[in-house]
Specification:
This protein is mainly alpha-helical and about 550 residues long. The protein contains 18 helices and eight strands. The strands form three sheets. Strands 1-6-8-7 form a four-stranded mixed beta sheet. The longest helix is centred in the middle third of the chain and has 45 residues.
């Protein structure tokens, strides 16, 4: 786990909420062999997969089971002492008349509820009842704690994932952890529970799979390069085959033209490059076969270890980590009450952190920051969206827990979290993505993070202004302003910070083209872009 959030929102933020290049006259691929399969588009060099698809249907018809009279009993059934304790304290909390007593019972109820939720989480599976899943997903202990309007809103949330995006409600996340589909989140704890041999073997399998993913990514890169060279080769051969005719010699084809001779030279160079690429592809395939054999051997050794399912202690450990994420989203001065209750729930479906609403918000941010999810590894750029966990709390900020998977930095998804019941969903999502931006840049730069990349430039500005506090918090607040205000031409950032973002977190070119007419500062940055493009780059 990396840096954590501190501090409060800036007041100014709180009120917010390509041309294709020619190929030197050579025939195009479409002219020679037709268009590529549409499914291959995302694998071409420099062409990462498409962005999010906008979700039109963000809610569904109300579900009746939320209004069942015995809903509460079905939630706490079979949970033993943990359920009894929650029932006792909930009754005292709701019936307390004295403010001091109510505050006391509230504190005790919070602790008791987390124990109950942990008990449910430790046993949750795909077949667990919806009542218990909704306890984890929404913090919904009893429908009687909500108004009729609030209950109607909750009942309209789409339950299943229809998006194929890695955005998970808490119950879904815990099911994946329990099934071994994803590993547990990183922690700062130095003292680890001693692992048995079976778990060590499963960890080795995960590591091997991460290595395999990295090697597959490299192989795809080499194959894409080979495809490009083969296309060029076809184009050159077509040029070579297109001979001039001499009418004085009865229309016979004559010697190669200067253009054809240049094409012959290019063919020789391309063939050499193809030979080198082929050797690299052979090497990748050899490594992959070796990794696959290793995985197969490890799988045989783990046949007696109940598949890849995580043990109860692992699931409980993940839930403990989830509690830490929860605290960070809410903040020190926020509302840490974990139960969904009408006093704290604002009945506004558009501001609710549902899966569909969050994806639409992330799509808006990615439109302004196209490089947000792009990751380059061994000259191969791919779009990797992190796992996003929707936490049932009343927080105002989203967080990034880890930018990469520990054992697979090349293609592994990071982890971010966003509150479900937030006051301003857009700000919550942007803050999480800003945190992701910072941590990815910092991890890439390693111990040079104060000197290189986005973090290095921003840190030097931070030091030059002799500012105090958490530099990451300043960055997050400035990123929010960049995405919400500066994109529209409203100048809110420091001049130097605007320059850093303009160069290193650039808007799409069409937005830059519009901003150049919105004031001198943007026009000046635009001119610098032109000058730099004529030199060696930034």
């Amino acid at each position: 786990m990396t840096d954590k959030f501190k501090g409060e929102l800036d007041p100014a933020i709180a009120e917010l909420i390509s041309q294709d290049e020619g190929r030197g006259g050579s025939p195009s691929l479409d002219d020679i062999i037709g268009t590529r399969n549409a499914g291959d588009t995302g694998e071409a060099v420099g062409m990462p997969p498409a962005q999010f698809k906008k979700i039109i249907e963000t809610e569904e018809s109300p579900k009746s089971f939320f209004r069942e009279k015995d809903y509460y009993k079905k939630v706490i059934a079979g949970e033993g002492d943990a359920a009894a304790r929650v029932h006792e304290l909930l009754s005292k909390f709701l019936n307390a008349g004295d403010p001091q007593d109510k505050s006391m019972f509230r504190g005790r109820l919070i602790s008791a509820y987390w124990n109950l939720a942990a008990a449910v989480a430790s046993k949750v599976t795909a077949t667990t009842s919806l009542y218990k899943k909704c306890l984890l997903r929404y913090g919904l202990l009893s429908p009687t704690l909500l108004s009729s309007e609030q209950l109607s809103i909750i009942s309209r949330i789409i339950l299943e994932n229809r998006t194929d995006e890695p955005v998970h409600y808490l119950d879904e996340w815990m099911i994946k952890i329990a099934a071994g589909e994803v590993g547990i989140s990183a922690t700062d704890e130095l003292k680890r529970v001693k692992k048995d041999e079976g778990q060590k073997m499963l960890d080795k399998i995960d590591q091997a799979k991460g290595q395999r993913d990295s090697e597959i990514l490299l192989l795809k890169n080499k194959i894409a390069q080979r495809d490009d060279y083969e296309i060029q080769l076809i184009e050159m051969i077509k040029v070579i085959r297109n001979h001039d005719n001499a009418f004085e010699f009865d229309g016979l084809e004559i010697e190669y033209s200067p253009e054809q001779k240049r094409a012959l030279s290019s063919v020789s160079d391309i063939l050499k490059k193809l030979g080198l690429l082929d050797r690299e592809i052979v090497r990748c395939c050899h490594i992959l076969r070796s990794i696959d054999q290793n995985i197969e051997t490890l799988d045989k050794k783990t046949e007696g270890i109940s598949g890849t399912a995580a043990d109860t202690q692992t699931v409980i450990s993940e839930f403990t980590t989830i509690r830490q994420m929860n605290k960070l989203c809410v903040g020190r001065k926020g509302n840490h009450f974990p139960i969904l209750i009408k006093h704290y729930f604002r009945p506004n479906f558009r501001e609710l952190g549902t899966r569909e609403n969050i994806i639409n918000q992330m799509a808006r941010v990615e439109e302004l920051d196209p490089g947000l999810f792009l990751r380059t590894y061994k000259n191969r750029t791919t779009r990797i969206v992190p796992h996003l966990i929707i936490l049932p709390n009343y927080g105002e900020r989203g967080i990034c827990w880890e930018p990469f998977e520990r054992k697979n930095r090349a293609t592994g998804r990071g982890r971010i979290a966003v509150p479900l019941f937030t006051k301003n969903l857009r700000l919550a999502v942007i803050s999480a993505l800003a945190d992701l931006r910072w941590q990815v840049a910092k991890e890439k730069a390693l111990h040079y993070w104060m000197e290189e990349g986005i973090t290095g430039h921003y840190y030097r500005w931070f030091e030059s202004r002799k500012l105090r506090g958490d530099v990451k918090e300043y960055f997050i607040n400035d990123y929010i302003l960049w995405i919400t205000k500066e994109c529209e031409g409203t100048q809110k950032l420091d001049r130097e910070v605007r320059g850093i973002f303009w160069r290193l977190i650039p808007f799409p070119q069409e937005i830059k083209d519009k901003l150049r007419n919105r004031g001198f500062v943007y026009n000046d940055l635009y001119k610098k872009d032109i000058n730099i493009s004529r030199s060696d780059g930034y």
